[in-house]
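Sample intake — RGS10 protein
Collected from: Ptilorrhoa leucosticta
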Amino acid sequence: FPPPEINDSEGHPSSSHQTLKGTSKWATSLESLLEDPEGVKRFREFLKKEFSEENVLFWLACEEFKKTQGKKQMQEKAKEIYMTFLSSKASSQVNVEGQSRLSETILETPHPLMFQKLQDQIFNLMKYDSYSRFLKSDIFLNHKKSEEQEENSPEAQTAAKRASRIYNT
């Protein structure tokens, strides 16, 4: 029989592979960073300073678009994404390869993955360019330092001692 599951004080399974949080999780991959709202917020802050926030905004808009239901809503969202990020007159134009650009005619018959190729291009641009700089940025390093200070605070240590007493009885 497997040993009984050990739970932490909130009833969540406790394991030696405890799920990473915050900056530790963000540093594992761009995907992990983009799954965390706080990570997205910090990454946007960083990209804004680099004048490339439109990349993550486009990526997020595409993720949201994939969840859109109904042809009319899809048409509206597709047009909004096109006008904001892809049109030659776009206010926050993303830098995608010319031949990958969509023509406005495709907006009439939208489908959930119509922006996938462009989204992948932008993801790779962020992954191999901005993301590595973000991990070395003051925004990331300062957030990491404040997390570490919180973990080493007397309150956090007291909770850890209480938890170890519970498990070691």
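Post-analysis note: The radius of gyration is 21 Å.
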